[in-house]
Design goal:
- The complex is a heterodimer of chains A (132) and B (214).
- Chain A has 132 residues and is an alpha/beta fold.
- Chain A has a single domain, classed as Rossmann fold, CATH 3.40.50.
- In chain A, strands 2-1-3-4 form a four-stranded parallel β-sheet, sandwiched between helices.
- The longest helix of chain A is centred in the N-terminal third of the chain and has 15 residues.
- The radius of gyration of chain A is 13 Å and the shape is globular.
- The relative contact order of chain A is 0.21.
- The model of chain A has no long low-confidence stretch (mean pLDDT 93).
- By secondary structure, chain B is an all-alpha fold.
- Helices cover 71% and strands 0% of the residues of chain B.
- Chain B has ten helices and no strands.
- The longest helix of chain B is centred in the N-terminal third of the chain and has 29 residues.
- The relative contact order of chain B is 0.16.
- The chains are: A alpha/beta (132), B mainly alpha (214).
- Chains A and B meet through helix 3 of A and helix 5 and helix 6 of B.
- Chain A: It catalyses: dihydroxyacetone + phosphoenolpyruvate = dihydroxyacetone phosphate + pyruvate.
- Chain A: Its EC number is 2.7.1.121.
- Chain A: Keywords: Kinase, Transferase.
- Chain A: InterPro entries: DhaM, DhaM_N, PTS_EIIA_man-typ, PTS_EIIA_man-typ_sf.
């Protein structure tokens, strides 16, 4: 009760650096600094694409002992995120979830939930309610 | 008559040959990079050739240090380098294939042969991509190649199997990856991932055939 638990972190992964960064900006505007937040967009050259190494760095940057929720756009982003999570290694990889939700809406809703101190499972569930 | 399986596992253990294989793969992808991009432009985002070339060049840049490692470690290192450099969906898929091969060949207490290690690695790729045979992916080349290897077909036949298998993906409807958004419009185009996989398989087979002791 007196020891404040950290809030769940949010990571945004898009093929486009502009989308990833723009979404992160929106999330930041919603929740300020109350939630650890990072993004990875594009490949290593800055072109459209995804990059497992960059995603791994983003997860590290947004790391929270309460866990991290990851939002991805198209297929390659998901596959590379899974790879990055695996590279994180146990036990931390168990605390990272890829959300089946739209990137922008999902990240914003998840961040709002996370800023209230919700556990990872609830943050993920809230975001995934957006998916049909 | 050449014995595919025996030769592949025997030859790969030679550091010099591993360097040669890395160079063969790099050169093959470099020579076909434009073609792979063209295939990818038809049903994907058009960068498969450049992505693969970047990955192969990164492996090539560390060929000496990689080749000095025991084979399982070398394969894992190559896999990781591919993941970190190819990007896109192909990075994790090719990376998983090689990393799992390494892990399988290292599996303690078991004497794994090359075809069975490859089979496990291909299954790991299928799990990673959540794909199956017939989904129009590199798996449609990997499975027939593994089968040919397990049946100890000569290397030249394995190479032909791979090339044929890649061509057969043209008739398939993509179920995974960017191409799947095209639905029926993906039919009639060879899958870029299947094509790079066949090119690499054929190049590796040719190289092993040529470097085999007479």
């Amino acid at each position: 009760m007196n020891e404040k638990t950290p809030n769940v972190g949010i990571v945004i992964v898009s093929h486009s650096p502009l989308i990833a960064r723009g979404t992160a900006d929106m999330v930041r505007q919603m929740v300020g600094d109350s939630v650890p937040l990072a993004w990875s967009g594009g490949n290593r050259q800055g072109d459209l694409g995804t990059d497992a190494g960059g995603i791994l760095e983003a997860i590290e940057a947004a790391w929270s002992e309460a866990g991290v929720a990851v939002f991805v756009d198209l297929g390659g982003a998901e596959t590379n995120s899974e790879m990055a999570i695996e590279m994180l290694g146990l036990p931390r990889s168990k605390k990272v979830s890829i959300c089946n939700a739209p990137v922008v809406e999902g990240a914003v809703v998840a961040a709002a939930e996370a800023s209230g101190g919700a556990p990872l499972s609830r943050v993920v569930a809230t975001a995934e309610e957006l998916s049909p | 008559m050449s014995s595919g399986h025996g030769r592949v596992s025997g030859v790969l253990a030679e550091p010099v040959l591993l360097m040669g294989l890395i160079e063969t793969c790099r050169a093959t992808i470099a020579a076909n990079s434009e073609h792979l991009c063209a295939l990818d432009r038809a049903i994907g985002d058009g960068d498969h050739g450049t992505n693969m070339r970047r990955g192969c060049e990164a492996v090539s840049a560390e060929d000496a240090s990689v080749s000095a490692l025991p084979l399982p470690d070398a394969l894992e290192k190559i896999g990781l380098t591919l993941v970190m450099n190819i990007g896109g969906a192909a990075g994790p898929l090719y990376g998983t294939l090689l990393m799992e091969m390494g892990r399988e060949l290292r599996a303690p207490g078991e004497k794994r042969d090359f075809p069975s290690a490859l089979k496990q690695a291909i299954n790991a790729v299928a799990r990673r991509g959540r794909s199956h045979v017939g989904d129009k992916t590199l798996l449609d080349v990997l499975y027939p190649v593994q089968d040919a290897l397990a049946h100890r077909l000569p290397l030249t036949d394995i190479a032909r199997q791979a090339e044929l298998a890649a061509e057969l993906t043209a008739a398939m409807r993509a179920m995974r990856g960017r191409a799947s958004y095209l639905g029926d419009r993906s039919i009639g185009h060879v899958d870029p991932g299947a094509s790079s996989c066949a090119l690499l398989t054929a190049a590796i087979c040719r190289y092993l055939e040529e470097s085999a002791p007479a």
